[in-house]
Design brief:
single chain; 325 residues; alpha/beta; Rossmann fold; 3-stranded antiparallel sheet; elongated
């Protein structure tokens, strides 16, 4: 967005405010605008309180009757300044997942092809407890295919994917949205998923994923793609698995929810492997990097970087291909 956009229109609670500039400019100007509005609100409230005190003090004094009526009429004509709408973000805190074995997933001599196109040829990788693997590569390199094979949603042509002991996997992909029941409301879906939990806990969960107030009574069939993604993520993370397999988890998420999710996952005590093109997600969470070289990535073998995504970028001297802010 910083590189491309020159104007941003923010839609919030039915109002549209336009900003001329890139995303960094928008964030700065929005903060300045909100601070100015708060200051103007405070000044107006002080003035209104002063005028109201005058009216209350002299409303029974005949000599001041004209002044009192004049001030009452003036107050009625004033355009009231409202406080800026607060962006309410509820912090989500993970319950502690059960401890898994040291070896979470062992991939050995993996082969996979689609027709004449070879995706993996003798690929091996061991994912250990506590690691957070970011899977990089151009479109068609095999990122989603790898996650599907780890999750058991696809099978290799040969080789094996062995999951470790005491493992409870949470798999998020766009297909995760298909398991939602469109006839239920948000709160009904959560009650169905977690019947042992009280309404207060489920409303707090919904609020953490930006469903507050009457939002929880929306029918799932009426939700947008982003809202369905938030609900699917909430369902998966409430009783957290100890191994998260996430395929583009920030797709369709608004910025507030994305930031909340990254902060929450920083405290996650389990293991992760994920595909993302979001720089905030990668920089915040990637402690190991797997770069795939298939399709248009020079067709070389996968490369493992033992350091974080930030260290990976420092080594390359630039962001990975296709990464956006």
């Amino acid at each position: 967005m910083n590189r491309i956009v020159s104007k941003i229109a923010e839609i919030d609670s039915g109002e549209i405010v336009a900003y001329t500039g890139n995303y960094d400019f928008y964030e700065r100007e929005r903060t300045i605008r909100e601070n100015n509005q708060q200051a103007a609100f405070a000044r107006q409230q002080a003035m209104l309180a002063k005028e109201q005190r005058f009216i209350e003090r002299f409303k029974t004094h005949a000599a001041k009757a004209a002044q009192v009526q004049s001030r009452i009429k003036a107050l009625d004509k004033i355009d009231k300044i409202e406080l800026p709408k607060t962006r309410r973000v509820v912090k989500f805190e993970f319950r502690v997942p059960p401890r898994s074995g040291d070896q979470v997933a062992v991939i050995e001599d993996l082969h996979k092809r689609y027709g004449p196109r070879v995706i993996y040829q003798g690929f091996s990788l061991t994912i250990r407890r506590g690691e957070r693997w970011a899977v990089m590569g151009r479109n068609g390199a095999g990122k989603t295919t790898l996650l599907k094979m780890i999750a058991g949603a696809a099978q290799p042509d040969s080789g094996s994917v062995r999951l470790g002991a005491s493992l409870n996997m949470g798999y998020f992909a766009q297909q995760s949205l298909d398991v939602l029941n469109g006839d239920l409301t948000i709160i009904e879906q959560l009650q169905q998923d977690f019947p042992q939990d009280g309404m207060g806990s489920l409303r707090t969960l919904a609020g953490a994923f930006q469903f507050s107030g009457d939002d929880v009574d929306k029918k799932i069939r009426a939700l947008s793609g982003g809202e369905k993604s938030r609900l699917a993520m909430a369902r998966m993370l409430y009783n957290p698995p100890n191994f998260l397999v996430l395929d583009e988890p920030t797709n369709h998420l608004d910025l507030a929810t994305k930031e909340m999710l990254v902060e929450a996952l920083k405290t996650f005590e389990g293991t992760m492997i994920f595909v993302s093109h979001d720089r905030m997600f990668l920089r915040g969470l990637g402690s190991r990097v797997l770069e795939l070289g298939g399709e248009s990535g020079t067709e070389r073998d996968p490369v493992v970087y033992p350091g974080s995504y930030i260290e990976y970028v420092q080594r390359l001297g630039h962001e990975a291909p296709g990464i956006y802010s």
